[in-house]
Amino acid sequence: MSRRTNLIFVFATLPAAVAPFVAFTGKYAPVDLITGGPWDPFLLLLAAPFFLGVPLVLWQLRLCLDRASAPWERRLVYALATTSALTSMFCFALLQWLWPLVGLLVFLFQTVCAALLRWLLRKAPAAEIPSAALALAYLAHVALPVALFGTDTQLQIGWWLTLVAALAVIAQLTLLVRRCRRGAPAP
Fold first, then answer.
1. Comparing C-alpha atoms, which of 96, 53, 100, 59 is closest to residue 76?
2. Model pLDDT for residues 11-65, shown as the tens digit of each residue
C-alpha cells in the first residue's frame, strides 16, 4: 500500500492501541487484568492479545516511514502474530468447554482468518504479509471478546474502540484482497 494509505490506516487503527488501556466492560480494562485485577486465567488470556493493537499501529506507522523492513522486524511481527493466534486458540478451547455455540462461531471466524492468511501468502506482495499477519491475528482474537461482551449492558469505551479498530482492519484487509484479486502490483 502507498504511504498515504498506510497513514490513513495508522489513524483508523489508532483505537486498537488505546483499547487495552481503557475500560472494556464493567470497570476493567485489559491492562487492569494483567497488572493486578481479579486473577482469572481465562480473563488474562482474553486480555493479553488486546496489546497486539499497539504493535499493529506501530507497524503501520513504520511502513509510512520506510516500506522496506529488515528480516528481524518481520520475524518479530510474525512472533507477535503467532503468539496472539495461539492465545486465541487456547481461549477457543476453553470456550468450547464453557459456551459451545459461541466457541463454534469464534472457531469458524478464526478458521476464515487463517484461510485468508494462507491465501494472502500466495497472492499478496511479500511486503504486505507482515501487516496482514498482524491484522488477522488481531481480528481473530478480538472477535472473541466483542462477541462475548456484545450484549453486556455495561459496555465501556474500550469495547467501542475495539469495534472501530476491527472495522478499520477489515477495511484494510479488504483493500489488500481486492488488489490481490485484480493482480495489481503494490504501489
1. 59
2. 888 999 998 898 877 777 888 877 876 667 777 777 777 888 899 899 888 888 8
Q: How far apart are CA 57 and CA 11, in angstroms?
A: 8
CB atoms within 10 A of CB 171: 14
CA-CA distance, 69 to 77, in Å (whole number)? 11
- CB atoms under 10 Å from CB of 83, counted, come to 14
Question: Per-residue DSSP letters for 84-113?
Answer: HHHHHHHHHHHHHHH-HHHHHHHHHHHHHH
Which bin fits 23, alpha (ψ -120 to 50), beta or left (φ > 0)?
beta
Q: Where are the alpha helices (DSSP H) in the chain?
A: 3-18, 30-35, 41-47, 53-65, 71-98, 100-123, 129-149, 157-182
* 8 A C-beta contact, residue 146 and residue 159: yes
Could you tell me the pLDDT band of residue 171, with boundaries at 50, 70 and 90?
very high
